[in-house]
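Deviations from the work plan: none for this task. Representative record:
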Amino acid sequence: MSLAFQNYIITTIVFILLSWGAYLPLRCGQLYCGIIYCMAGAAYFCGYTTTALAWAPWLALVCSPVIGAIFAFLPALFLKRAPGFTTAVASLALVFILQTVIMNLEFLGGKVGLFGIPQVKSLLPISVGFFILAGILLHRLDQSRLGRAAETLLFNRDVAASCGVNMDSMGVFLQTAGGALSGVAGAIFAFNVGGLFPMAFGFAFLVNVFNMLFIGGSLTIWGPAVFAPILWGIPLILPKAIAEFKDVIFGVLLVLVLILKPEGVVTKSTVRAVISSFKGWLVTTRFL
Amino acid sequence: MEGFLAQSINGLALGSIYGLLVTGFNLLLLVGGIIPFVYPFVVVICMYVTWAVMGATGESLLLAIPATILSATVLTVLMEPLFRPLAKRKAEAQTFVMAVGLSMILTHIMALHLNHGFPVSFSASLVGREAAIKLGLVVVSRGQLLTFLGTIAAVVAFMYLLYRTMPGRAFRSMAQNPLVARLLGIPINRSAVASYGVAGVLGGVTAVFLAMALGTAYPILGENLALKTLAVALFAGMGNLRGGLICGLILGMAEGLATGYIAGLWSNAVAFGMIMVVVILRPKGLFGVKF
């Protein structure tokens, strides 16, 4: 497999994990921009521990979801009940606070950046493994009581409260879980790229994640999983003259989807229809 | 002492611009029912209009200023139909995401198609660095003085519109209760478009003052301004017009003093630190939410 194709798959997995990290708090109605902040924290953790402290990369990878979760948990204690917009702005502020802190810390490379992060040879299968594991866990969460309770919060907070759903705990849990996923994404990103710049973890990254989440489908894990490869891959194969306009194309797509189909292209009914067609095909071809 | 005064004057000039920016932001928030994250990007792209018109007309301010205000108004009004379906659904977070999408488009235009992505500089006739007032060693430039006084005039005119005219009364009614406003015969759609127009005029005026204060414009200025506008709006209390003005001045002063007295790049974190303080200690903002 070519290096470019490997890089494409790994980057796509990073974006899917980040989109899932934003998808979790969105299930209870909170637009969470802190995925980039958790990603940056875990990425710099992996970068620093493997360069300055000579940790083994596998150890840093294993610790990355914990680091991401810690970065998410502390602000979540204050953001748990915040309305959607306040969570979005406050978590966005965390991104830029962390950026400023990193730029002023020489031992993390400061404004210049942190280089020399060791390459991990089997990063592709590790990334795919994390992606599959995260997908299974999220699918199980969606089907569980906890997932249904979170969804109730999204549609009607009063009904959720009267059914005994603890809004505060749910907010903290979903933001922390989102942070953990973002932490993994940060670790994979750090080992893939080999160098970190504070300005890389900024608004542009967040915009890409929002595109994949909201265009793909914000009510199901399949939306970002299906659309991240498409939205990340298409500009790579388009002619240069059109690829230059990818920001405009994505911006227009995002606006159109939000107006015409706010739940995104892939919805739960789409997923159910695909699954039942697939089962029907299996029955027809006598596999079942 | 001179250093403190100089930084305070810088801070006041910048803070007054933030206050004006937040006023337009809050107007769209209250009447349009949206989170207009894209509004500062419209202001920055109109700074490019100022630069282009001045370049094409031999530094004519008489043409550049009306052109800037007109372009800001047109751009802002053109966005109204895009936000209307989301505002009707009261999808607050989605209006923020849509504004992010629109801001991507505007940033792309500035980064790739305006002056080849390079920053633009404004001429001395607009920026006005010559001294207007001298307080010992401290100098208040013409640009700073005009910015501060012009902002006050713009805010007074806006408050007059809001509290002493029929359209202003319509805006306030829609902000309080759109359903009752409709029942009282206020044309909701037309008033919403008018509010976008007023915000656009404020945005155009802000663009001119920003050009005076900064002397330059560049593609990522929109992102910087948008984040600071959000910081001020959240710090003051979403939709609180008076609070937004005061907190704009506070942020400008805080940034000016941080630049002068704190080493390193910590001054960037002032606005964001303010957001976190507000979220932790007083989630509804310093002056309370009006939205």
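The two ends of chain B are 41 Å apart (CA to CA).
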